[in-house]
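chain below, 137 aa
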Amino acid sequence: MASLKDLIRQASDVRHQDDVEIPEWAPGVRFRVTGLPSGDWEDYHNKLSKMTKRDEASGVEMTIRSRKALIVAKALRDQETGELVFPDLTEGIAILSKRSAGIVGGLFVLVRHLSDEDRDFTQKVKAAEEDFGGGQN
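prediction:
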């Protein structure tokens, strides 16, 4: 029997959605949008905010920067091959940053949903309990 560590390592828990159409970009083409693993979301949240200390008297100042193009570039795949549309993330971010904010924002919301980033811990526990029949031993 596999160890718990091996079971976790082998789990296929990152969801995806096929048949995503973006006719403004590629009429008739279907994309796969994948959720992202925990590490990518932590990196994203760490890059969202940049803390700078002005001086002892003024305290800490926080600046928020959006990185939606980064998340979408990491999640957008060719549905036929499964390959990333933007294997070069820097190029992908540059391209997506010049596309419709509504489309990129909508894809970001989908990636967030597929990654379970749009639910709080209580909702995640409830969903897990329903998936396993509501009973724990």
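Residues 17-36+66-116 form one domain. The radius of gyration is 19 Å.
thats it, cya
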